[in-house]
């Protein structure tokens, strides 16, 4: 297992937003976490990336304990987080934003190579490399956020609602990019409100309901599950 979360609880102040969550991410796979607003999806991702301390359980990455590590160390271990709402630096240029993703790396040549490969993957970012990030469209900002995460040379990418607020054709483009980076060997944890899209992309899925894991299974099986169809797919 690349990442394993065992009986994890985490929250804000004294309120546990997620309780007793266990999630396994095999190397090279796409795992999705679906659930309603406030179910605890973002909280789970933030616990994985060390942005939020956990109050119970343990998290291992490539066999090593990572819970309790600061987020910067977790990134250095190979986990990149593409947060909800992209969180790019609005006043910095596209290229400066991308370079922030590599701030912990010492291999200068590797960073230049990866910058070139991000520009090859996202030609629009190359065209706009000197443009201030806040002037980019929502889809371009999402690509920038993904590009920035790739600049840390991760083995696992955590993506929080990458389709949010984007037009259907851009959502298709983002989906294709997720498939592409996964096909190149990157493992992905995908949080989505768009359950249809998430179950189509993922190998395995977890359903969170009010902070607990209500269901899990192969994505195709959950797609055919009656409860999932009624509650999340509107069928
Ligand atoms: P959404 O899709 O709406 O982002 P989610 O499934 O990602 O939902 P979380 O954002 O993880 O859900 O929220 C889980 C619970 O934790 C909610 O009850 C939410 O109100 C609470 N919560 C989230 N962030 C904070 C915070 N910074 N302080 C206090 N409570 C929070």
Automatic annotation (TrEMBL):
<keyword id="KW-0547">Nucleotide-binding</keyword>
<keyword id="KW-0813">Transport</keyword>
<dbReference type="InterPro" id="IPR030660">
    <property type="entry name" value="ABC_branched_ATPase_LivF/BraG"/>
</dbReference>
<keyword id="KW-0029">Amino-acid transport</keyword>
<dbReference type="GO" id="GO:0015807">
    <property type="term" value="P:L-amino acid transport"/>
</dbReference>
<feature type="domain" description="ABC transporter">
    <location>
        <begin position="3"/>
        <end position="235"/>
    </location>
</feature>
<protein>
    <submittedName>
        <fullName>High-affinity branched-chain amino acid transport ATP-binding protein LivF</fullName>
    </submittedName>
</protein>
<dbReference type="InterPro" id="IPR052156">
    <property type="entry name" value="BCAA_Transport_ATP-bd_LivF"/>
</dbReference>
<dbReference type="InterPro" id="IPR003593">
    <property type="entry name" value="AAA+_ATPase"/>
</dbReference>
<dbReference type="GO" id="GO:0015658">
    <property type="term" value="F:branched-chain amino acid transmembrane transporter activity"/>
</dbReference>
<dbReference type="InterPro" id="IPR017871">
    <property type="entry name" value="ABC_transporter-like_CS"/>
</dbReference>
<dbReference type="InterPro" id="IPR003439">
    <property type="entry name" value="ABC_transporter-like_ATP-bd"/>
</dbReference>
<dbReference type="InterPro" id="IPR027417">
    <property type="entry name" value="P-loop_NTPase"/>
</dbReference>
<comment type="similarity">
    <text>Belongs to the ABC transporter superfamily.</text>
</comment>
<dbReference type="Pfam" id="PF00005">
    <property type="entry name" value="ABC_tran"/>
</dbReference>
<dbReference type="GO" id="GO:0016887">
    <property type="term" value="F:ATP hydrolysis activity"/>
</dbReference>
<dbReference type="GO" id="GO:0005524">
    <property type="term" value="F:ATP binding"/>
</dbReference>
<keyword id="KW-0067">ATP-binding</keyword>
């Amino acid at each position: 297992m690349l990442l394993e979360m065992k009986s994890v609880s985490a929250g804000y102040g004294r309120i546990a937003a997620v309780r007793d969550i266990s999630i396994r991410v095999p190397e090279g796979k796409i795992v999705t976490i679906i659930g309603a607003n406030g179910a605890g999806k973002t909280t789970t991702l933030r616990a994985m990336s060390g942005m939020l301390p956990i109050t119970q359980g343990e998290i291992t990455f490539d066999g090593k304990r990572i819970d309790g590590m600061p987020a910067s160390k977790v990134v250095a271990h190979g986990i990149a987080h593409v947060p909800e709402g992209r969180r790019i630096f609005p006043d910095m240029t596209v290229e400066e934003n991308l370079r922030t993703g590599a701030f912990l790396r010492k291999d200068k040549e590797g960073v230049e190579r990866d910058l070139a490969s991000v520009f090859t993957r996202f030609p629009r970012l190359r065209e706009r490399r000197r443009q201030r990030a806040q002037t980019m469209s929502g889809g371009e900002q999402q690509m920038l956020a993904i590009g920035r995460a790739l600049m840390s040379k991760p083995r696992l990418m955590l993506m929080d609602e990458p389709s949010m607020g984007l037009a259907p054709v851009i959502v298709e483009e983002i989906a294709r990019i997720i498939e592409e980076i996964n096909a190149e060997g990157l493992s992905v944890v995908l949080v989505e409100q768009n359950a249809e899209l998430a179950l189509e992309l993922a190998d395995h899925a977890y359903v969170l309901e009010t902070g607990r894991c209500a269901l899990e299974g192969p994505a195709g099986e959950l797609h055919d599950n009656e409860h999932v169809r009624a509650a999340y797919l509107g069928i």
